[in-house]
Write a structure and sequence with these properties.
Radius of gyration: 12 Å
Structural class: alpha+beta
Strand order of the largest sheet: 1-2-3-4
Distance between the termini: 25 Å
Number of domains: 1
Length: 91
């Protein structure tokens, strides 16, 4: 389960993410710029950002356990670790 709380901030959003997966729990903070929300999420409204972050965590959890996901990061770093993210998420 991935729960996302989206908070607007200048230039984008700060998302607090709670993950419960495979018996593990973790907390994360993800920043999302307006440009990244438009590029990968298809919109810049809070609901679209929430959906993008949730889908991004589903993507990450298919590749690594919750404890291996950075505790705090900018959404754009995912493509550095997983180049296929860009192709899969670009709208």
């Amino acid at each position: 389960m991935v729960n996302v709380l989206v908070r607007h901030r200048e230039g984008g959003w700060r998302c607090e993410v709670a993950v419960e997966h495979g018996g593990e729990r973790s907390q994360h903070v993800v920043t999302v710029s307006v440009a990244d929300a438009l590029r990968w999420g298809g919109g810049d409204q809070p609901a679209e950002v929430e959906d993008l972050v949730r889908r991004s965590f589903d993507f990450l959890l298919e590749r690594e356990p919750p404890g291996s996901i950075l505790r705090e990061f900018d959404l754009s770093v995912i493509q550095r670790y997983f180049p296929e993210y860009d192709q899969q998420f670009t709208r």
